[in-house]
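Supplementary notes for students who missed Thursday's class. We covered one full example, reproduced here. Read the sequence, then the structure, then the short commentary at the end.
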Amino acid sequence: MSLIRVLALTLLAALPAQAQDSRLQSLQTGFAAQGWEAIGRLDMAGVGFCTATLIAPDRILTAAHCLYDRRTGGRIPAEHLQFLAGWRTGRAEAERGINRIAIWPRFNFASGAGMDNVSEDIAVLELDRPIRSTTIHPFGVADLPPLASGGSVTVVSYARNRAEAPSIQETCHVLQQRPDGVSVFSCDIDYGSSGSPVLATVNGERRIVSVISARVESSDTPMSLGMRFAGRVAALETALDQDVSGVSSPGSNGARSDARFIRPPANP
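Structure (token representation):
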């Protein structure tokens, strides 16, 4: 039995009933997607896609495991990555390549979805050109103390069977803040949702407070895993500012069998 399944059984036995979550809603129209254009699809040519979010004109935030090829266990070259901001029905608000990558150094792709890896599953990528647009506004990052259990959050994501437009779950909840830095949410995510921003209202503005790393399997109730930032995002941005090439994950010893991204569908 995997650690993820053990966690599911433990949580289902120990957690109180949660408040009502909202349903996923597709943001297929320009009106519905207004204000969410900074969230986009991160395509890995020939490998799959994840979700990523613009946090500065030239920076995006995503999950570190999105930057590895599960078949080989190796890093995906930056030139094979593309960020599609606000991707919707075959069109992006902006398309950018990736110039540089900073991955939290304790992340180890080969160890898979173990809980100790989830808390380190963060990466910041530098775009090849800044996105400067009156309609695309980067989201701020809030490095908060642990959110209280029962607190409401919002997730916007791409995923399997909904790769051509983002979907929003306006209200899901914090189920648990584990002492190992892993956050457990009731948010409904699927393959491709890795890297999705978990947002909370901070001082009247929506800020990113976590990133989706994995979903909990063998649970009848939607459950997903993210992490507390604990200064990691700021440190990765500083590394990019200082051109520190050594901030990356240690070499992987092989591919995992539980990668949490999927191949994008062929364009019609």
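Commentary. Residues 246-268 have pLDDT under 50 and may be disordered. The chain has one domain: 3-241. If anything here is unclear, bring it to office hours.
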